[in-house]
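Why this split exists: single-chain examples teach little about how molecules sit against one another. For that reason, every record in the complexes split bundles all components of an assembly together and asks for one structure covering all of them. Below is a record exactly as it appears in the raw files.
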Amino acid sequence: MTEKLSENELIQQRRLKLEEIRKKGIAYPNSFRRDSLSADLQQECKGLSKEELEEKSIEVSIAGRIMLQRIMGKASFMTIQDMKGQIQAYIRSNDLPEGQYADFKTWDLGDIVGIRGKLFLTKTGELTVHADSIEMLTKSLRPLPEKHLGLVDTEQRYRKRYLDLITNPESLEVFKKRSQIISSIRDFFTKHEYLEVETPMMHSVLGGAAAKPFTTHHNALDMDLYLRIAPELYLKRLVVGGLERVFEINRNFRNEGLSTKHNPEFTMLEYYSAYADFNDQMNFIEKLFNDLTTEVFETSVIEHNGQSLDFSKPFTRVTLKEAVSQKLSVDPSSLEDRSFLLETAKKLNIDNVDNLSDGKLLFELFEELVEGNLIEPTFITGYPKDVSPLSRSSDNNPLEVDRFELFIGGKEIANGFSELNDPEDQAERFHEQVNQKSAGDEEAMEFDADYIEALEYGLPPCAGVGIGVDRLVMLLTGAQSIRDVLLFPQMKSKG
RNA sequence: GGGCCGUUAGCUCAGUCGGUAGAGCAGUUCGCUUUUAACGAAUUGGUCCUGCGUUCGAGUCGCAGACGGCCCA
C-alpha cells in the first residue's frame, strides 16, 4: 500500500509541494476561522446590483476545497467548495503580499484553503470573493477524480465514499435527504410523546424476526451472543415497564446475501404504543408519511420510477387473500383449499411446498405474485398466524392475526401488528418456533423465557410497527440500490 | 449459488482483423489582470485486474481466479 505512494508521479509532485510548505512554517495550520458559507452568501446577496454590493463593502472569510481553477498571468479565479456548495474567489497578484501569488500558482485541485476578501460581482454577475489574504490549510496529496464527470466507477464510489461525496453533488444530496428524513421522523415521534430509547444490539436469545443471525463471543463472560436481528422483544419489555410509547432508530444485523435491497446491517425504525391496535397504527403511518414528505420535500407527492405517489391520500387496504385471489382470478375461498395452494405454488416453482403450512403457502404466493406490483401505498392485512409468531390473534378468525404490512413501489416498507400480550399464547407460539427450528428452519426464533416472564407481569394492549429506514430513503430519493443510501455499504475485502 | 456485462494513465473513456498502447481532464513548462468545462503552445505519465495457456507475436483469442454491476434463486 505505501509503496504505491512513491510510485505515482502526481503524488510525488504534491509531496514536494508539501515539503516546501513545511519549510516555510506550519503545514497543517488550524488557526484560520471562516465566517461565511457559500450558499449563505449567495442567499444574502441575491438581487443586489454590482454597485450596491460594492457600496456595502462586505468582508468575508471562506474556506473549502479547490474544485476548479482558472489561472492567468497575474490574476486567477478558483471555485471553492464548502459544506453548502461552491463559491468563486478572485486572486490578484497586486492585492497580495510579495511572493504569495507565486505560491498560489502551485496550489492544486483538491487542496483545502482559506480566503479572506470583499464580495463583488463579476462581469457576468457571479458573486465572488476578491481575495486580500489567502492561506493553504490542508495540502491534498492525491489528485481528485475528473473535475466535471466526478467519480463514476461504482465500486470506487462505495469503497471511497469521500471521493463520491466531494465530486458527485447528487450523491451528497441523497445523504443530506437521508439525514433530514431521520430527523423529521424523530421530531414526529417526539411530538407524539414517544420516548426514544436504545436497546441491546447483542442478544443472548434470538428473537423478534425471522432471520439468520451473526454470532459473536464475549470473552469475559465466556458467552456466545447474537447481533440483534430486531429490537422488538426489548421494546415490548419497556412497554411492560410503563414506557407506553417508545421508539428506536438503530441497526439490525442479518446474516444473509447482499442485493440492491439487502445489506447485512441496516437501519430499522421500531415503535410501540400502548392502548392502540393495528388499525390505529395504519392511520398513524399515513400521518407519518404525509408529515414526513411535506416537511422534507415540501410536497406530499413523490415521483417514483416515473409514477406519482400521493402521501396525502389514505392508503389502499386489502387482505392477503383478496390480493392473491384477485391476481389468480379465483374466489378467495379457494385459498382455504390446501390442494389448490399446493398446486399453485408448484406451478410457481416454490421450493419445498409439501413441507409448508397453509399459511406459509399463502404467504409465499403473495410474495411471488403480488408484492412487486404494489406500487401505490398499500396495506395488506389478514396475515396467517404461523408466519406471525409475535402478533395478536384475530378475534374474528383464529387462523389469522391483527397484522399489516405496507408496500410501496413494489417493496415492503413497514410491518406492524397488534402485539400478542397473552403470555400463555406467546409461550405456545415460541414452542412452535422451537419445533420449526429443530425441523431445520434456520430463521425460526428461540424460546425467550425471560420475555414470557415480562409478559406475565402484564403488557398492556398495544401495537407496534417496524419501518425499514434504508428502503424508505430509497423510495423517497429514487435510489435504485440500497448501497446508494448507505454511506459505507458492505463490500468484499480486496487483496 | 446461476446467468449476463465490466476491469486499459490519478480520473473519464477509445483501442479495428492478434502486429511498437491512444484521447480528454488532471499534472509539468511557457504565455495571459474579470475567468467560469478559461484560453493558446509544448510536454510527462501504463502491473492493459491476476495467473496459466495458444501463437513467431496477446490489451485483443482460450481456461482458471479476484473484484464490481445488473438480473435470477
